[in-house]
Amino acid sequence: MTVSFTLNGRARSFSGDPRASLLEVLRDTYRLTGAKEVCGEGFCGACMVRIDGHPATACLVPMGTLQGSDLRTIEGIGTEEELNPVQQAFVDFDVVQCGMCFPGMVMTLTHFMKDNPHPTREAVKSALTGNICRCTGYERIIDAVMSLSGAAQPVTEAQP
Ligand code: FES
Ligand code: FES
Prior knowledge:
Layout: E1 2-7, E2 10-15, H1 22-28, E3 48-51, E4 54-57, E5 70-72, H2 85-92, H3 102-115, H4 121-127, H5 139-147
Parallel strand pairs: 1-5
Antiparallel strand pairs: 1-2, 3-4, 3-5
Helix pairs in contact: 2-5
C-alpha cells in the first residue's frame, strides 16, 4: 500500500505495512527523532505530532489512515536558529531536564497557545493532561507558558 501525505511542508509517500505506526515511520524511515516513544500506548504524549492541524499521538496512528494528511513534527515548527516561542520560553525558564517529554509538550502547547494566547494557569494545566513529565515539577513549565502572555517573568539565577 502506498500512502501520500505532506510532512513538514514536503510531499512524501510511504510504501509498506499500513499497520506501521506513524511514530515508527517518522523515526526509522525519515529519521525525525524529535517525537519519542515512551509508553507506546497513547498515554504519555511524548510522541505528539500534528495531523491536519490537530495534536495526535503518533504511536497510535497507523500509516494506512494518513492518505492526503498534512503532518507536522517538532522538526517542522522551529529551527535551532529560530526556535518557536514555546521552545524559546522553555529555554528562557530553564525547564528542560532529560528532555524526553519536551518535544511532545511543545507540540501540545504550540497548538494550545494558538487558540488561547492569554491562558490561565488552570487552562495550561488542563492542556497538559495528556503530556507526562517524569523529571520536573510542572510549575516552571507553566511559568514558561504564562510568560508568553506576559503573566510571568523568566526565573533568574541568584547572584553570589
Ligand atoms: S509514546 Fe505515544 S503517547 Fe506515549
Ligand atoms: S524532562 Fe524528563 S520526562 Fe520531562
